[in-house]
Amino acid sequence: MPAGTPTDPPHLDTGRAHPARVYDWLLGGKDNHPVDEAVGEELPSEARDAARQNRRFMHRAAARLAGQGIDQFLDIGSGIPTEPNLHRIVQGVVPTAKVVHTDNGPIVLRHAEALLSSGPEGATDYVQADVRDPDGIIRHARGVLDFERPIALSLITLLHFLPDDQDPSASSVSRGPRCRRAATSC
Q: Rounded CA gap, 19 and 80, in Å?
């Protein structure tokens, strides 16, 4: 089991739709349930294409960053691993890349345990954590990533799930001074 994950199996509620499983359904995946499909069917017809475009964007962005020498990635709100996942893309470009995936969904944890493996040169880890606990995420990620070197931060398809009253823009690790400094130099 990846480091930093709880030892007790989380409760999976398959009778209620989950955003990660609905997204999986939109992408044509198999890791969803009828309730997720029902929600997906209610979305505008453009939702499937938007999900595929979003996924292609993540592929392009990750590959480009890796191609420019970035070899550390923090993927917050990673969702159910869908091939190729972020770590597969970047380790295909930079085999020694280190990737930490983070999500708060129990369903994602189950899939991460089974699917998030790395090549022998690189490192892939998973932590079950919430974007609203940036200190916890960073504490775990420091065990894998070197925060004295550049780290690509992925927050794709995440912050729109936080209600306005939870101040999504202030909830993430992207608000830290090192992240802001890095973002202004890109």
A: 10
Which CATH number is 19-184 given? 3.40.50.150
Residue-wise pLDDT tens for the chain (186 aa)?
344 444 555 567 778 898 888 988 999 988 899 999 999 999 999 999 999 999 999 999 999 999 999 999 999 888 887 778 899 999 999 999 999 998 887 777 777 766 666 777 888 898 888 888 888 999 999 999 999 999 999 988 776 666 677 665 555 555 554 454 444 333
Would the pTM of this model clear 0.85, i.e. be above it? no
- Tracing tokens 């029902």 back to the chain, one arrives at 38
Give the whole-angstrom CA distance, residue 172 versus residue 179: 10
Residues 6+ apart with CB under 8 A from 185: none
Distance CA 161, CA 170 (A): 14
